[in-house]
Amino acid sequence: MRSFPVRRNTLVLFIVLFLLAIFAWAGWANWEYRQQAAERRAAIAAVQGELVPVATAGGDSAQFITPLEGKPAPAFTLPDLDGKKISLASYRGKALLINFWATWCGPCKIETPWLVELRNKYASQGFEVIGIDTEGDDAAPGSDAYAKDKSAIEKFVEQEKMPYPVLVDGDSISKPYGGLDDLPTSFFVDRNGKVVAAQIGINSESDIENNIKKALAE
Amino acid sequence: MRRLAIATATLLSLTALAPAQFVSKAAQGRSGKTEAVQYLFPEQVTLPAGKPAAVALHFRVAAGLHINSHNPKDDFLIPTTFSIPDGAGVKLENAAYPAGAMITLAADPTTRLSVYTGEFTINTRLVAAAGNHLVQARLHYQACDQEQCMPPKTITVAIDVIGK
């Protein structure tokens, strides 16, 4: 009877160790699964040119990986609201935020005042925002739908007092920029024309500002 | 044995937390590309030929998403609209849309949006010509979640309408 407490303690110890081992294995398996899933998503992104969310260890804001990161931002020439053709190449030497948005996009409307404020704050350091309207309807220039879109864009730009260039017909360059399945989508480009970061959806003004600083620094 | 029970309970609690630790809400929300709105029923209706009849059409918005109601609170937003193309053998005499639920986005608690989430019903009055008509009606909508929006979309609402 005297040896019973020892046997019981040993039993408890073994059970605890066993459970700890299961817990450690579950944690490792979970980490391994997440790693493999992230690699699969990155591989898909590389093939499809899509932005893919990457889960972060803390907080709710997801970061995005894009196959464009570290590569030159895809070239484009698009008309502005006056019909003047504007090319990305004409902004070489500036740090850029290329912001794809649409008039019907609520989060874009929330984000726009932030972009205006940040553009004005960092313009003197060689920073510019290029807003590219992407209505998602592939309206052909000259069509009624195109005219309707243009009218809505002009109204939006006036209402939001957007001081930066706003280009239209973003649908035509959606493929090289990853499909633009969701708006707003922003790409941050350094002074050498390389993409340094990307964001899908509305995060916070500070997240945007951090990526602007990254674009200005590199 | 009490110590064993406490140790086991503690470890099981920790194990339960393990799968949640690396995945953000936004990442979970974007993990799959599903249709934002699904037409549920009816697939077939029998109506008195040539006379207006009430037909309730049921739809479901995917979890985590919302679409604008028929009367969104901002001119820029795209209203949800149901239509039947001409020549379908069935005419849409009237469509009564449900009132939207008022929500705000986390990034801007001051702006209220009128939206549909979950299941919603459009109460229509249809006039069917005599005969069997496979109607390809349309629902036009624009969907968002709390952080981002998808382009406007039109889905086909297939209804077999029998006019007798």
Describe the structure.
The complex is a heterodimer of chains A (218) and B (164). Chain A has 218 residues and is α/β, with parallel strands linked by helices. Chain A folds into 2 domains: 4-48; 63-217, Glutaredoxin. In chain A, 42% of the residues lie in helices and 18% in strands. With 164 residues, chain B is mainly beta. Helix content of chain B is 13%, strand content 49%. Chain B contains 2 helices and 12 strands, in the order ααββββββββββββ. Mean pLDDT of chain B is 86; it is low at 14-32. Chains A and B meet through helix 1, helix 2 and helix 3 of A and helix 1, helix 2 and strand 8 of B.
Helix and strand topology:
The complex is a heterodimer of chains A (218) and B (164).
Chain A: H1 4-48, E1 52-54, E2 63-65, E3 77-79, E4 85-87, E5 95-101, H2 106-122, E6 127-133, H3 144-160, E7 166-167, E8 185-189, E9 195-200, H4 205-217
Parallel strand pairs in A: 5-6, 6-7
Antiparallel strand pairs in A: 1-2, 3-4, 5-8, 8-9
Chain B: H1 2-17, H2 25-29, E1 37-41, E2 44-47, E3 52-61, E4 66-68, E5 81-83, E6 90-96, E7 101-105, E8 108-116, E9 119-128, E10 131-141, E11 143-144, E12 153-163
Parallel strand pairs in B: 2-12
Antiparallel strand pairs in B: 1-3, 3-9, 4-8, 4-11, 5-10, 6-9, 7-8, 10-12
